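Training component of the fellowship. As part of building independent skills, the fellow (R.M.) carried out the full modelling exercise for a liganded target. The chosen ligand was 48F. The inputs are recorded below so that the supervisory panel can assess the work.
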Amino acid sequence: MKLDDIVISRAIIERFSEKLLDSIECEVAIVGGGPAGLIAAFFLSDAGKKVVLFERKLSIGGGMWGGGMMFNEIVVQDEGKAILDKLGVSTRLFKEGYYSADAIESVSVLISKAVKAGTTIFNLMSVEDVMLTHEHVTGLVINWSAVEMSGLHVDPLTVRSKYVVDATGHAAEIASIIQRKSGLRLDTPTGKVIGEKPMWADMGERTILENTKEFFPGIFCAGMCSNAVYGGPRMGPVFGGMLLSGKKVAEIIAQKI
Ligand code: 48F
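Fellow's submitted model of the complex:
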């Protein structure tokens, strides 16, 4: 069989368009494909929810690829290990209560599990705004990351969802956008994004779970974003809290849908 270049192009354009059209109305729209976003996506999809995840970068995985300071190993505690076990990521005991895992295996398995469970992932797309209707987040405003990076004046498109998860990591981007553009109070003690505190792994891992919640009607935070929104400390390359936060947000949202 002779390959026809135009058929190849047609296949890509048609299949991508189908995927995008199918995604513009969903149950949960997740912003950010780091460990928290991916785990949230996996558990929600596994529970039968329609989930779409948007990631700004070419590669999915956020800050997990680089382990700690580019030493591509991550550390989890018992509770985080239980999630890695469920997903089939190999771990090694380092010392009682501390396990290591290969960062590359961890990220690639998380991506694969989320996709196989039914999550649709769009890479190279940035969320630049939310749809806010009657003081309730009802979806996302998306654009190509290339448009964002080049500063071109190109209007975006929209995605409607029952719930949004801000899993944008340290920057807490979507929470910051809501604060800046709406002028409304977030459900935090100050009404604003408080900002993450300096490193304290033990405290950070504990507060991240308390801080995984609906911080504004229709939108939840997960992962490092939760500690950024509520003022918890950072915790560096221990990843259990990210996984547990992703699972927690999935459980809360799955119950609400
Ligand atoms: O930063 P990231 O990995 O967040 P996380 O899932 O995990 C944090 C850890 O990696 C690490 C840590 C461990 O203790 O502290 O930092 O909470 O992933 C966030 C992803 O969101 C993407 C960003 O490119 C990254 O891959 N992202 C951020 N803003 C946007 C976005 C946006 N506006 N639109 C689309 N993607």
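The panel noted the following from the submitted structure. The two ends are 48 Å apart (CA to CA). The first strand starts at residue 25 and ends at 31.
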